[in-house]
Each structure stands twice: as structure tokens, then as C-alpha cells.
Amino acid sequence: MTEHYFAALEQKLDQLIKRLGQLEEQNRALRSKNAKLEEERAQLVQSSDATRAQVEAMLTRLKTLEKTK
Question: What is this structure's pTM?
Fold first, then answer.
């Protein structure tokens, strides 16, 4: 095995280590974004449920008013 072989191997390992670091950073960013999106989704679901409950309550009141006429 020549010095050239080891230099090329070292260069490939350096590239792999650099790429691993990039992928780890990308993974952290994606996990963070995913957590934010999950939180946003939970808030939207909660808001939607509250709105649905308000609309249902209004419909019930309207039906009650119609029956009393």
C-alpha cells in the first residue's frame, strides 16, 4: 500500500466526516421544523374544534328560536 493510497483514503474519510456533519445539522433542523409544525397543527386543531363548538351552539340556539315561534 502506497502513500498515495492512504492519502486518497484519508481524503475520502474527510469527505465522509464532513458530509456526516452536514446531514446531522440538516437532521436537527428538520426535527426542529417538524416540532414547530406539530405544535402549529395542534393549535389549529384546537382552534377548529372551538370554532366548530361555537357554530354548533349557534345552530342549536337558532333551532330553539324557530321552535318557539
Answer: 0.69
